[in-house]
Design goal:
The protein is α+β, with helices and mostly antiparallel strands. The protein contains five helices and seven strands, in the order H-E-E-E-E-E-H-E-H-H-E-H.
């Protein structure tokens, strides 16, 4: 999770313990404990200049560091979503991602460069069955590295089913 506020409810629910400097020299933060018979790790990107580190770059570095040091069986990327209310999304609802794309990466050039910039990556093949079993909705996750939205980004999201 990128932000402390997103991670805190799980940290509190499972009484996870903070491990200082686990990822040093990176700013990533680790909270760990048990969830039933499972080891549970909640990792967030950390803080710089008093603010949570956000965006794809921080997420990629944090995820790679967590994989290298923790060797998890599964990774769940969780965060705030549901901002596209005109498509029926509701803030606070739980959705399972059935695809992932970048909405703010504009890579000029031929179609291969543009395709790489957009992403449109599939996710775990069991998503649909898990969503049905849990009674959850699915949707394409769009991600970016800014808090504002340009008209071009909004069109990209709309055109690609975000």
């Amino acid at each position: 999770m990128a932000m402390r506020a997103e991670a805190q409810p799980l940290i509190d629910l499972y009484s996870l313990q903070h491990t200082t400097n686990f990822f040093a020299p990176l700013p990533c933060q680790l909270h760990s404990g048990k969830a039933g018979d499972c080891e549970l790790y909640v990792v967030n990107n950390g803080v710089q200049h008093g603010r949570d580190l956000i965006g794809c770059e921080a997420a990629a570095v944090t995820t790679m560091a967590a994989i290298e040091k923790l060797h998890p069986d599964i990774i769940i990327c969780s965060g705030t979503c549901g901002g596209w209310q005109r498509y029926g999304a509701k803030v606070g609802s739980v959705y399972l991602g059935d695809g992932v794309m970048f909405h703010d990466r504009r890579v000029p050039g031929d179609n291969e460069w543009a395709t790489q910039g957009l992403g449109n990556y599939p996710v775990w093949q069991g998503t649909a069955a898990l969503a049905e079993h849990l009674g959850l909705e699915t949707g394409k996750v769009t991600t970016g590295s800014s808090f504002d939205m340009t008209a071009e980004e909004e069109a990209t999201i709309h055109d690609n089913g975000g």
